[in-house]
Amino acid sequence: MRPIHRFVTSALCTASLLAACGSPATVTSEPTSAPVDIAPTQTVAPATVEPTAAPTAPAPTATVAPAAPSATIAPTATAAPVSDSTGTVIDTSPRQPVAGGPTLLDSRLALRYVASIPVNSIRIAYDATQKILLMLNMEQGLVRIDPITGIKDIVAAPAEILDGATASGLAVAANGTVYVSGNQTLGTMTKAVIRRGVPSGQATSVNKSYTWATYTWTTVASTVPYPRSDTPFDHLFNGIAISPDQQFIVVNSGSRTDHGEIESQNGTFPDLREIALTSRIFKLPANGTDIVLTNSEEGVAPYVYAKGFRNSYDPVFAPNGILFAGENGPDADLPDELNAIKPGLHYGFPWRFGTTDTPQRDPAYDPSTDGYLNPDFTAVQIGAYANDPSYPAAPTTFVDPISNFGPAAVQYRTIDGVAHDAATEGTSIASFTPHRSPLGLVFADQTFPASWQPTGANLHAFILSWGAAGGSLTDRGQDMLALELTPAGNSYTMTARQLVRGLRNPIDAASIDNRVYVLEFGDNVALWEITFQQ
Q: In angstroms, rounded to a whole number, what is the distance separating the alpha carbons of residues 231 and 152?
């Protein structure tokens, strides 16, 4: 089964990302949200050691660094010499600065182990007002992490933030206001909520050496209860992004189906496919209060930003103000996408993946001859790919995903089942190798060194891959790609190059100046700092 495209039927481990995750580990720290002393969690140093005014970064040890990645995660080779924006040739020889850690593929990168990460940590964001990282963990709630020392403190418990819902999305505004999304299972139904935390006080560490903000929480918006499919395809509400002017937020609501098939929950909801509250990105006022999103097209129309997404788990506004998001493709060997998302447009789901029509749209569709299908994946196993004469007609024209000219992440399969690599064929795909599960998108800005900054109207970005959980394509992801995005008409084209490989199910990223912090997911995983040097 493919974990990340299930991402978050409540956050992760509930039916989205972690259909293959198992039961969450027991959390030993007691969450607390009152502004009182809270014992810090030390990363490497003992709990009695106080941080100094200029803390020394903890040295990684073999006991906390993750195990070496499996040999089945194949690196993507770069066929030609690589140059930076000044024309200087870059050394791409593999380096592993931390034993058991990820491998760097660019001499301008430096790696530092920051902290061990508890299981079910799903989001990371930078709070510039406190100069700290905030992490969202499904059991512990909101956790602050000092990016220098790696010390962790629980800031707010899940019950205080979401009142019974399971956390799934996190964003932090320029003024330190925090936005969290979550989902709550209610029998055959589910309900989403978006909450806002305004800094309103301070808590102090046990050793009295530092403080952090506490929050007053209110509801921005919630949905009425709506039908679950009760499958791993319940992607629910998850990723949040804040507009550049800080006036509105966008929230992704993923699909309830794999590819638009009927998901009736054993007949509870006959003939039901997607609905008004699924497979779209919503736009909400950042200062909104108690907005109710109903399950009707008329009711949600004022709040729809764009439609046609299976699961755009991690939307991000680029420096030029355009919204971008990776898109997790289906349980078939059809592409994962990167989209430049503009208001009012439709991006294809469920009628199209990449630029390929969903095969089930064909009234004569025969899954036994479908070369895109692989029995590793849930939708294939349960017979969700089937002849479907009632499959609805496409409602409109669609926006194409961004074309990727490689050399990385451009494997694809044709309907006859044959695997190809677009880079060796001199062509492109839209946008990534199937099942890579792209997320953790970060853009380079003026704080990055000149050799990492884009030229003209181009954009430079870095995107993570959760990684494939099945299939026979050799590009397995679990890496970081460097993307150069070039304007092309109303969209972009891109090239992709592998920068870091051997990450362990990376799930999110945040940047502070020229440093990108990568959050891994699972047991015995880490928060890594990758510094981009000149």
A: 35
Task: Write the pLDDT tens digit of every residue in 499-514.
Answer: 999 999 999 999 999 9
CA–centroid distance for 378 within its chain: 21
Q: Which of 101, 115, 112, 138 is nearest to 41 (CA)?
A: 115
Whether residue 147 is preceded by a cis peptide bond, meaning omega within 30 degrees of 0, is: no
Pull the structure tokens for residue 40. Answer: 């810090």
- C-beta separation of 370 from 359 below 8 A: yes
Please say whether the beta carbons of 505 and 479 come within 8 A.
no
Q: Report the C-alpha dihedral over residues 4, 6, 9, 10, rounded to 10 degrees.
A: 0
Q: Give ∠ CA 101-338-459 in degrees, rounded to 5.
A: 80
Tens of pLDDT, residues 380-439: 999 999 999 999 999 999 999 999 999 999 999 999 999 999 999 999 999 999 999 999
What's this model's pTM, rounded to 2 decimal places?
Answer: 0.87
Count CB-CB contacts under 10 A for residue 368: 6
Task: Give dist(CA 520, CA 524) in Å, integer.
Answer: 9
Number of residues that make up the chain: 534
- Nearest in space to 327 (alpha carbons), one of 367, 360, 281: 281
**Which residue matches tokens 């690589």?**
82
Residue 26 sits at the vertex; the CA angle it makes with 23 and 32, to the nearest 5 degrees, is: 125
Give φ, ψ of 282 to 5 degrees: -100, 150
Residue 8 has pLDDT above 60, yes or no: no
User: 3-class DSSP state for residue 417?
Assistant: coil
Q: How far is CA 339 from CA 113, 225, 280, 425, 493, in A?
A: 32, 29, 13, 23, 10
Pairing of strands 316-317, 323-327: antiparallel
3-state secondary structure at position 303: helix
| Phi, then psi, of 34 in degrees rounded to 5 | -70, 150
Mean pLDDT across the stretch 244-269? 98
Give Cα separations from 215 to 121, 142, 383 (angstroms): 20, 11, 47
**3-state per-residue secondary structure call for 64-98:** CCCCCCCCCCCCCCCCCCEECCCCCEECCCCECCC
Fill in the amino acid letter for 147.
P
| Least-confidence region, from 7-11, 303-307, 417-421, 510-514 | 7-11
Q: Strands, DSSP E only, in 243-285?
A: 248-253, 280-285
Give CA separation, 104 vs 112, 332, 335, 352, 411, in Å: 11, 31, 26, 35, 22
CB 497 within 8 A of CB 482: yes
Decide if 311 contacts 7 (C-beta within 8 A): yes
Number of helices and strands in the chain (H, E): 4, 33
Considering only CA atoms, which of 242, 170, 231 is closest in space to residue 11? 170
Peptide bond into 199 cis (omega under 30): no
Give the whole-angstrom CA distance, residue 225 versus residue 528.
38
